[in-house]
Amino acid sequence: MGNQPDKIRVSAGEDLLAFIPHMVGYWPNRSIVCIGMSGKRLRATMRLDLPAEDYSEVHRFAEIAASQLSSDPDADGCLIAIFGNEDWIAPKQIPHAQTYSALRMALAEVGLPVRDAWFVGPDHWRSLECTDAGCCSWPGKDNSAIRESFVNTEFIYRGSLVRESPAEQIQELIAVEDEAFAASVLAAGEEYREPLAQRGLGEEQMAVTLGAWEHSLTRWPTTPDASMTAFLLASLADTTIRDIVMVALATTPNHAFTGAMALRLVEEDEGELHVPHAWHGGNQAASCSVHVESYADTTYLYACRDFGNILIGEISDGDGRIKGPDWQRLEKAQLLLQFLCRTTRGADKAPVLCILGWIQWCKGRGTWAGTYFQQCQAFQPGYRLASMLDQLLAIGHIASCAKDERTAWHGSSNESSEEKAA
């Protein structure tokens, strides 16, 4: 689901249909797009894969879609656009009629009656609500009317471009760019993989690891050298360390460290500490500033609760505290993680892809999240966290932080416009 930009007046069907690709970030294919409305104002945009014509659980699909869109408490109606792979030629054969009917019913039941709907084929579009050939002829208006509309022109003027699908964009974002650097990272990783996998949860070693991530995040867009890159990748091989890093990226390293200590995830150190080369002049990382915030009961309680909530996209909302992801940190972390992806071809790419998918899931961008999770499992089949989160997407579960105005992501100039909606 995506958030809307500054006001742009939408006055005709072609304007609304031009609005959709800019919100989704690409021209949808075999998709249903629903847009919530509050009065005459457009609200959240949601895109879902169009189910097959013979899909036996079409009512379940419709219930999931309605549940997702109704998470916006201010919405009181909706618009629907079905993007198919064939034009609507036969007047009496409404495209995806069973799905459309079930969706209308499910949306009405949650208080979001459909106010208008369109079908968009490869070359033509027309209203799903009007069957009068004298008013809306078949196969409909040429899609050039959408591309030439005022809304499309206004979006382009504002710098928004409609690009290829998320799968194609993600492939570009994570592809290895510098073969020589990737080879250096691979060689440097030999020093860190086994020690961090076996002893990475030691208290001082964990502080070093979180310090390394914080150092790299703080220095971005200066990219880590081969040794630091290899260290960061190796640290994610242990799933508990990965979880602690995720919480640190969404909050602070100290808060994540405190939560990990409170949950007794951190162990006693064994053996020497492992530190990235040339970081703070070498072994100074052993005394990095990552530390427990406080041993007070309330601090431990909050850190413990926040740790679990952040990982599952929930929010802490007690005693006047509202704790959700720090989006400024996560957006910078997203760029760092994409850089890490571009430095390796191996299985160590999987946890990085999983975290990237998790960030998108927390943003409420299901299409992007699902694509990252699928990419993760392509590099490491059966990767558990990616599989679990992908299953949550499949049943329509949206991270709570994405549904709460206080903690939801509202877009940022750090990302291109085509990356700002699901």
Number of domains: 2
Global mean pLDDT? 87
Major sheet summary line: 6 strands, mixed
Got a strand count?
8
**What is the first-to-last residue Cα distance?**
5 Å
Helical region count? 18
Q: What percent of residues adopt helix (DSSP H or I)?
A: 40-55%
**Order of adjacent strands in the largest pleated sheet:** 2-1-3-4-5-6
Radius of gyration: 24 Å
Any descriptors?
alpha+beta, 2 domains, six-stranded mixed sheet, two-stranded antiparallel ribbon, 18 helices, 8 strands, about 45% helix
Describe this structure in words.
By secondary structure, this protein is of the alpha+beta class. The protein has two domains: 13-162, 3-Layer(aba) Sandwich (Cytidine Deaminase, domain 2), CATH 3.40.140; 169-419, no CATH class. 47% of the residues lie in helices and 10% in strands. The chain is built from 18 helices and eight strands. It has a six-stranded mixed β-sheet, sandwiched between helices. It has a two-stranded antiparallel sheet with strand order 7-8. α3 links the parallel β3 and β4 (114-120). α15 (349-363) packs antiparallel against α16. The chain is elongated, with a radius of gyration of 24 Å. The termini are close together. The model is unreliable at 413-422 (pLDDT under 50). It holds the Pfam family DUF4192. This is DUF4192 domain-containing protein.
